Amino acid sequence: MNTQLPQDRLRITEIFLSLQGEANAAGWPTVFVRLTGCPLRCQYCDTAYAFHGGQWWEIDAILAEVARHGVRHVCVTGGEPLAQKRCLDLLRRLCDAGHDVSLETSGALDIAGVDPRVSRVVDLKTPGSAEMARNRLENIPLLTARDQVKFVLCGRADYEWARDMVAEHGLSARCDVLFSPSKGQLEARDLADWIVADRLPVRFQMQLHKILWNDEPGR
């Protein structure tokens, strides 16, 4: 008889090994644990397949699958991983197992309970995302040097909004700040030129995995 309690399980869309495509761990072989479900509907979302479905996994089984790949870096992503309460348990246990763990979160949910050993990559939503109202600005004072803030920009208006947010909240003094062009909506060269012209204390990035494999799931 299966005595596994529901609170020891998470709904998972996929677990796979690839290269980290963004943030300060870009280029490292990384195991991605993609949790199912997201309360947001950003207009540029490239992982809508993770909104529904998935399979229930026991946390022990997730850790075993991650360990099977034999790499140090692990990224817990979604969807919106923090929408599942047991994500916090998973993050803690991955850290306990000795992994270098990052969390990709929309910033719409409270990050206070995330294990301090985790690097939190918080995606602040711009006006062009159609989900700006979901930003939980109470997360900003919680950010530390281990964390990162990401802005996905759809055009000049998004850039100016993000530039003002960086200045207003002193984001670059708290953590790394990442500016990314939304694929098909903002030319990467334009964004790079704006950052240089304004001498912004931010890191320009492009999504390495999209350059290599486009939007292929599991890559």
TrEMBL record:
PROSITE patterns from the UniProt entry: RADICAL_SAM (PS51918)
Annotated binding of substrate, by residue: 19-21, 34, 77
UniProt domain Radical SAM core: residue ranges: 25-219
Record GO terms (molecular function): 4 iron, 4 sulfur cluster binding; carbon-nitrogen lyase activity; magnesium ion binding; S-adenosyl-L-methionine binding
Enzyme class: lyase
Chain sites annotated for binding Mg(2+): 47
Domain of life: Bacteria
UniProt entry keywords in alphabetical sequence: 4Fe-4S, Iron, Iron-sulfur, Lyase, Magnesium, Metal-binding, Queuosine biosynthesis, S-adenosyl-L-methionine
Binding site for [4Fe-4S] cluster: 38, 42, 45
Binding site for S-adenosyl-L-methionine: 44-46, 79
Cofactors required: [4Fe-4S] cluster; S-adenosyl-L-methionine; Mg(2+)
Catalytic activity: 6-carboxy-5,6,7,8-tetrahydropterin + H(+) = 7-carboxy-7-carbaguanine + NH4(+)
Pfam family, one: Radical_SAM
SUPFAM superfamilies recorded: Radical SAM enzymes
Database matches in Gene3D superfamilies: Aldolase class I (3.20.20.70)
Cofactor note: Binds 1 [4Fe-4S] cluster. The cluster is coordinated with 3 cysteines and an exchangeable S-adenosyl-L-methionine.
Pathway: Purine metabolism; 7-cyano-7-deazaguanine biosynthesis
CDD domains given in the database record: Radical_SAM
HAMAP family for this protein: QueE
Subunit structure: Homodimer.
Family: Belongs to the radical SAM superfamily. 7-carboxy-7-deazaguanine synthase family.
Protein name: 7-carboxy-7-deazaguanine synthase
Native species: Pseudoxanthomonas suwonensis (strain 11-1)
Gene name tied to this protein: queE
